[in-house]
Amino acid sequence: TTDAVWLAPGEPQEIHSDLISRFQAEYGRPASGVWFAPGRANLNGEHIDFHGGRCLPLALAHGTYVAAAPRQDGQLRLRTLDASLDDGVTTVPAEQIGPVNGSGTDQDLQDHHARSPRGSGHWSDYVSGVLWSLRELGVSQPDFRMQDGFGADLLVVSTLPIGGGLSSSAALECASILAFVALGTPLGRQNPLQDINAALSRQHRKDLAAACVRAEVEVVGAGTGGLDQTVALRARAGKVLSLDCRDFSVQPLDIGCIQRGYRLVAVDTGQAHRLVDGQFSDRRADAEAAAHLLGFDRLRDALPEKPRKADVLHVLEEFDRLAEQLDSVDGRDTQACRRRLRHALTEMVRSEKLHHLLSGEAYGVRHVASTVGDILTSGHMSMRDDAEVSFAVADLVVETALAQGAEGARLIGGGFGGSVLVLVPIGALPRLTAALEGISRSIRLLDVVPSAAAQAL
Ligand code: GAF
């Protein structure tokens, strides 16, 4: 076993000072500060945030750092130090940081991308998108009212694998939005740099997460549901967030077993994923079609307040009854819609179980670890067979982890690439690491340490 397979989160203070000096070299002026936002892992609740389901995410120590200084000409200049994305300094002119025209339909999104000089999909869309959505938020929220002509120079570096299913996009959005708040709004200008961490109320953070979601949906064109941005901006060190996506309320919960005798490890398969290509939204659309057939705008409402397995069976029977005479559901394959439905509903029940388990105090560490492990593994099977978002390496990582003594393992994030989360007894870690190294040279491991939310450093 070599240490090379572990991806370290790095020392924030070292990354901070390195970024400050590189910023000076790149732009010929000092950075005003550095902002950080974490990536995330998720114990359960994949592909259900946009259906109003419950998710159990936690923030990583790994994340994205943004050094920035304000400009007065409304434009953005930005560069990333991540080798896979670095294409020098990109300038986004002020005129281009406007809203998408019209109603935000697919056609509008396409027109918007067609107008963009770099075409769709450049990583700077995430940053220019949040500058736009923060301006929009400032229209109704005096604390965030954006100074006229505000623009910025930014230098970005991340300790997350890019496109690794650990929320690198949301980390970029959330670190950038904090930089913009600090440098361009009354809330930021009234508070010296680090004080912004205390000045941001819970409601502020909730509003900023919503603004980041808007940027990703309306400007980038990816159908994110808010899980990633919420955990990046509202996580608590040492805790898992129990996040109810009906109203985005959060409850921080202890996960003692990973502090005592077990470790959570994120295995980056090295196979990158992207949310903007059609598969992700396709899965979502299948489940939404099933919801509509059942008569619900939001799938979560098909289940009672505390959903159980029997409720899932009941809804599936109802679906079968309604679909019996139909060739398709909203033009989509009936059986595919049924599988997406079953994934979403069983995932909601797993979240409920986990929430109950982690909020109770009456359980021993062993019991918690093995129950969490079982939930992880059944979540994976559901991602594989019902959501159908898994892929060969992820399945192999899960099998390998279980064979090496892990309590459980699952694919996390949007799927079609990305990372597997493994809960493993500390004693089994060396052989697990060795076995995973044998699967592929692209595999990287991240120690999952429940960490704090986005902040000014
Ligand atoms: C991606 C999305 F951005 C999230 O909103 C969530 O849907 C996740 O995939 C799947 O659970 O990360």
TrEMBL record:
Top-level EC class as recorded in UniProt: transferase
Gene Ontology terms, MF aspect: galactokinase activity
Region (Disordered): 93-120
All residue ranges annotated as the Galactokinase N-terminal domain in the record: 22-70
EC number: 2.7.1.6
Keywords, alphabetical: ATP-binding, Kinase, Nucleotide-binding, Transferase
Signal peptide: none
Record bears the keyword Acetylation: no
SUPFAM superfamilies in alphabetical order: GHMP Kinase, C-terminal domain, Ribosomal protein S5 domain 2-like
Residues in GHMP kinase N-terminal domain copies: 126-233
Family the UniProt entry places it in: Belongs to the GHMP kinase family. GalK subfamily.
Name of this protein: Galactokinase
Species name: Nesterenkonia lutea
Lineage: Bacteria, Bacillati, Actinomycetota, Actinomycetes, Micrococcales
